Amino acid sequence: MPNISLRDRYLAFSPIRKLTPYAEAAKKRGVKIFHLNIGQPDIASPQIFLDKVKEFNQKTVAYEKSDGSEELKSSLLKYYRGLGISLTTEDLLVTTGGSEALMWLFFILFEPGQECLTFEPTYTNYVTFAELAGVNLRPITTFLETNFTLPSIEQINRAITKKTRAIIVTNPNNPTGAVYSRNLLEELVELCLKRDIFIIADETYREFIYGGTKAVPLLTFKKAEQIVVLADSLSKRYSLCGARLGCMVSKNQPVMTTANKIAQARLASPTIEQYAASFLDQVPESYFREVNQEYLKRRDFLISELKKIPDVKVSRPDGAFYLIAQLPVVDAEDFCRFMLEEFADRKETVMLAPAEGFYLTPGMGVNQVRIAYVLKRPDLKRAVELIALGLLKYKNEFIRTNPGT
């Protein structure tokens, strides 16, 4: 039997989904699971998108243009103008989700063996994309104790080496929910210009802001237009995760030319979804205000409930819809597995994402979890109640199996 590629040795399962087999087994036992492990919003998608999907009436679902339909690109250009970013159609390419754009960038910007910096805890799929491209993803650590604020520019500068080709800026951040100020971003832009490295901007959650710090698009810094490449997504902004639409945006034409070559090789992104998404510029601002307010209420409610559990520490995110919680356990992944395999209260339990997988530094995040507050408040209340009950039982089980500790 032939062997598969050695790449398999370096790839890991996503911490967001790696416990899925245990969750599926629990469901087969009749256990209801509150999913706090994945950023799948329960917010309704815009009605106009759903209506246009039903209205699609072409007799053949043909390939779209490789770089995206003219109608969707026009709609996206209008959206970016609203952010203060003036683009041409050559600066934008439609992708099959933001993930496709991110994956391509690891092949476009780097030679194998070069380095990319990221702030940890970091979005786990960066790790997989970097490994596939032979890129060394190197962490700059942020900490729960300081609410995951970025280190000083001096510290970031010290992390840059001769092999560093780019730095990823995820703003608002997944998994921490941190939002970075204009002043900090401007300093970062100046540093990257000075050190001649790219900035990969992942701004998927820019609509979800709850504090005083606004999400500043990196492409609004005119001086940085040639070094910033944006990987964007419609998934979270419009609650369209399953539509699998995103885009790559850059003023750097060699980057976009190479992206178009890859786009032609993969043929096209989904036709029907592109047609429906081209009408999203008609979604009223009230939609975003209402969604934002709902997530704000969920964030405040979740933090309040989690703080009632003894010895649990939580971050206070200013954006996105995630937070990091530190649990009074030695191994958070073991606790998460316990919740799916051995615990249930009234045939209900919770699925969490172990945070260790969001770190690159060994030993970091072992007693932390990422929680996505994508459920309604009554469900969040019940989920936290289950976490509290689960922790109590987990500790009792540990004491029972480890007497004398």
How does this structure look, described?
With 405 residues, this protein is an alpha/beta fold. 37% of the residues lie in helices and 15% in strands. It folds into two domains: 6-44 and 285-399, Aspartate Aminotransferase, domain 1 (Alpha-Beta Complex); 47-282, Type I PLP-dependent aspartate aminotransferase-like (Major domain) (Aspartate Aminotransferase, domain 2, 3-Layer(aba) Sandwich), CATH 3.40.640. Strands 2-8-7-6-5-3-4 form a seven-stranded mixed β-sheet, with helices on both faces. Strands 9-10-13-12 form a four-stranded antiparallel β-sheet. Strands 1-11 form a two-stranded parallel ribbon. The longest helix is centred in the C-terminal third of the chain and has 25 residues, at 377-401. It is globular. 45% of the residues are buried. GO terms for molecular function: pyridoxal phosphate binding; transaminase activity. It comes from Candidatus Beckwithbacteria bacterium CG23_combo_of_CG06-09_8_20_14_all_47_9. Its EC number is 2.6.1.-. Its cofactor is pyridoxal 5'-phosphate.
A few lines on this structure:
Its EC number is 2.6.1.-. Helix content is 37%, strand content 15%.
Shape, principal axes of CA atoms? globular
For the termini, the CA-CA separation is: 48 Å
Strand order in space, largest sheet? 2-8-7-6-5-3-4
CATH H-level superfamily of the largest domain: Type I PLP-dependent aspartate aminotransferase-like (Major domain)
Structural class of the helix and strand makeup?
A: alpha/beta
What is the CATH C level class of the largest domain, in words?
A: Alpha Beta
Q: Low-confidence parts lasting 5 or more residues at pLDDT below 50?
A: none
Fraction of helical residues:
25-40%
If helices are DSSP runs of H or I spanning 4 or more residues, what is the number of helices? 12
Oligomer: single chain
Average pLDDT confidence is: 94
GO biological process, one term: amino acid metabolic process
Pfam families: Aminotran_1_2
Protein name: Aminotransferase
Enzyme class: transferase
